[in-house]
Amino acid sequence: MRDRTKRKITPWLFLAPFLAAFLIFMAYPTVYSIVLSFMKFQAGKYTFFGLRNFRFLFTDPLFGKAIVNTLIILVIQVPLQTLLALILANFLNLQRLRLKGLFRMFTFMPVLVDTISYSIVFLLLFNNNTDAIVNGFLGLFGVQPLQWMNVGYLAKSVIVVAVTWRWTGYNAVIILGGLQNISAELYEAASIDGASKVRQFFAVTLPGVKPVLTFSVVLSINGILQLFAEPNLITKGGPVNQTLTIVQYLYNTGFGSFNFGVASAGAYILAVMIGIFSFIQLRLTKEE
């Protein structure tokens, strides 16, 4: 009986640290935030508020603006990043490429850079001053200094460039893993049939990396929908909320206005959006 009891208890003892951490840091905050989304802090205590937090968000122009800003960045950044990652992955997969390990290390390194550090670097690069690096470079070609942080579409472009610089290499390494799983015999057969390199890319390479490419795109979409650090550090949501993202809005609402009920409700609206985008992406790329 003792041996049987020990065999039953021992696995749970090994799982206990993880289960405790999961319950404290994941399960409890999740359940508590769901409760908060239906509550409002009044007279020193939380009172039931029903669906009015959600109704407020759907009628708040600023929240709508944050959604539009996020979607604009997503529509531009994700295809650009995916294309660059695909090109870079094919370059890293070339048989005749020397020092492959070194190139792959440099490709992956941007994602290891601290978010605050690289955001400050991009803030300095795209400063409005005439002596800033980017404006100084453009001045060599007679281009007048651009007000990167004072014009909406320019500020969005800075965010797109910053995020693309950081995550393109990461996605390239993911796609590279898919490229290395494609059999060389498929390329040999395509060459024998007279297929050009371009034809091989569309007929062999793209179908071969389709699952990995889908995974990369889903990760990228989810990342942009949760974008916070770059706009918060580089543009601070400006100018005039032109780069305000959904998560930045939720942060300002929760920790700026201490309206955690609305912030929690917004978090679950965002979760539903992420689920919808992921579902659509998986359905569109599903094999027959």
Q: Could you characterize what this model shows?
A:
The protein is 73% helix and 3% strand. It has 12 helices and 2 strands, in the order αββααααααααααα. It is globular and about 75 Å long. A two-stranded antiparallel ribbon has the order 1-2. The protein has helices spanning 2-36, 52-59, 61-92, 100-108, 115-125, 133-139, 152-179, 184-192, 197-225, 229-235, 246-256, 260-284, and strands at residues 39-42, 45-48. By secondary structure, it is mostly helical. Strand 1 (39-42) and strand 2 form a beta hairpin.
Annotate the secondary structure layout.
Blueprint: H1 2-36, E1 39-42, E2 45-48, H2 52-59, H3 61-92, H4 100-108, H5 115-125, H6 133-139, H7 152-179, H8 184-192, H9 197-225, H10 229-235, H11 246-256, H12 260-284
Antiparallel strand pairs: 1-2
Helix pairs in contact: 1-12, 2-12, 3-7, 3-9, 3-11, 4-7, 5-10, 7-9, 7-10, 9-12, 11-12
Percent range for β-strand residues: under 5%
Mean pLDDT: 87
Q: Which range best describes the helical content: under 10%, 10-25%, 25-40%, 40-55%, 55-70% or over 70%?
A: over 70%
Order of helical and strand elements? HEEHHHHHHHHHHH
Give start-end ranges of low-pLDDT stretches: none
Count of distinct strands: 2
How far apart lie the N and C ends?
53 Å
Structural class of the secondary elements?
Answer: mainly alpha
Strand order across the biggest sheet? Answer: 1-2
Please work out how many helical segments DSSP would assign.
12
